Amino acid sequence: MGEWTVVVAVLAAYLVGSLSFAVVVSRLMGLSDPRTYGSKNPGATNVLRSGNKAAAAVTLLLDAAKGWLPVWVVAQWGPGWGLGEGTLAMVGLAAFLGHLFPVFFGFKGGKGVATAAGVLIGLQPWLGLAVLASWVLVAVFFRYSSLAAIVAAVFAPFFYLFGGGVAWETSGPVGLAIAAMGVLLLWRHAANIQRLLAGQESRIGSKK
């Protein structure tokens, strides 16, 4: 147990996060590699550009699940293994980084929106739902997945802080992990921000 347990938990979370389901699902369903069309981003939004809504939905669910599962396992059994809030935060961040830099796919991954949502739901279900609600509202009204992700990334740390002591208990390590994911999401969406400002960003549902 002890330090080695922490290392194993974090490494396992990273490996789970490294499963690029956009690529895997597309191959299994006979679709083009999502890294070859549209935004070339291996994520659910780009898979949707193939015209296959089922593939996009499966990708979205699996990408979220791989963020949620490691966090849930540590939250459930971590205390018995001597794992605290610090490990929980590192595991969530590791799963997210696995999606961004997947070891199985040449460290070239997606932007991490669905995986981050899964991590948040694992950390605090109500927090995850609040952030998802903000994403849905922006996506429905403006039809830009990237804009919705940017807004959600900015709001997530504030939701976590303002809900502390009311809807959930807060901790420093978890708060830092959420803030780090938000910064990384903004960084991964830098090109999208430029296209949004130039009026050239693709809307949700646009084809290849």
Model description:
The protein has helices at 3-17, 21-28, 44-48, 53-81, 85-100, 113-123, 125-142, 145-162, 172-188, 190-198. It has one domain (3-198). The mean pLDDT is 94. By secondary structure, the protein is mostly helical.
Biggest beta sheet attributes: none
How large a portion of the residues is in β-strands, by DSSP E?
under 5%
Unreliably modeled segments: none
Question: Class by helix and strand content?
Answer: mainly alpha
Averaged pLDDT, please?
A: 94
Question: What is the number of domains?
Answer: 1
Shape: globular
Helix content: over 70%
User: What's the Cα radius of gyration?
Assistant: 17 Å
Question: Could you name the key traits of this structure?
Answer:
70% helix; mainly alpha
Helix and strand arrangement:
Elements: H1 3-17, H2 21-28, H3 44-48, H4 53-81, H5 85-100, H6 113-123, H7 125-142, H8 145-162, H9 172-188, H10 190-198
Helix pairs in contact: 1-4, 1-5, 2-4, 4-5, 4-6, 5-6, 5-9, 6-7, 6-9, 7-8, 8-9
What's the short story on this structure?
By secondary structure, the chain is mainly alpha-helical. It has ten helices and no strands.
